[in-house]
Amino acid sequence: MLLGLIIAARTLRDNPESIEKIYSSGKLRELTGMEEPAYKLIKEYLDTGSIGLYEELKSKYSENLIRLVRISGLGKKRMFKIYDTFNIKSLGDLKDKLVDNNRIANVLAEGGSEKNKAV
Q1: Which residue from 32, 83, 108, 112 has the fewest beta carbons nearer than 10 Å?
Q2: Domains of the chain: which residue ranges?
Q3: Chain segment 33-92, per-residue pLDDT in tens
Q4: CB-based contacts of 38, cutoff 8 Å, min separation 6
Q5: What sign does the CA torsion over 1, 52, 64, 7 have?
Q6: Which InterPro entries match (predicted)?
C-alpha cells in the first residue's frame, strides 16, 4: 500500500492540474498509478477535509515519536516497542525511564517483553 501511495503522490505532484480540478472532473481514478487505496484517501480528504486513518494514528502516537524513531542504534521496531511498553512520549521520558528503570534493556533484547509487567 505504501508504494502505491508514493506512486500516486508523485503522479499528482507531476501533474500540472490541481488535485481539486482533477477530482471534480472525475479523472482522478484515470491517472497512471492511482490505485484504489490512494484514491479513497484522496477522496476522503477532498470530501471531508481530513483522513480518518491519519487522525487515528496521530491520536495514538505523538509527533515526538518521529524524533525517537530517529535515535541511532534503536531502530523503528524497538522504539515502537519501547514507546508502547513504557508509555514514552518524548526524549525526556526516555532519559527518565533509562535512569529510573533499567528494564528497558529487556525490551531491547531479542524477544524481551515487559508489556505485562509493572513499570
Answers
A1: 32
A2: 2-58, 62-108
A3: 999 999 999 999 999 999 999 999 888 877 778 778 887 777 788 888 888 888 887 888
A4: 4, 5, 7, 8, 9
A5: positive
A6: DNA_pol_lamdba_lyase_dom_sf
3-state secondary structure of 7: helix
Q: Rounded to an integer, what is the distance from CA 76 to the centroid of its chain?
A: 11
Could you identify the residue written with the cell 481530513? Answer: 50
From the CB of residue 9, how many other CB atoms can be counted at a distance below 10 Å? 13
Cell numbers placing 111: 524477544
- How many other C-beta atoms are found inside a 10 Å radius of the C-beta of residue 32? 9
- Rounded to two decimals, what is the model's pTM? 0.62
For the stretch 24-35, pLDDT in tens is: 999 999 999 999
Task: Compare 6 and 73 and report the one with higher pLDDT.
Answer: 6
The letter for the amino acid at 10 is R
Q: Tabulate helix, strand, coil % of the chain (nearest 5).
A: 65, 0, 35
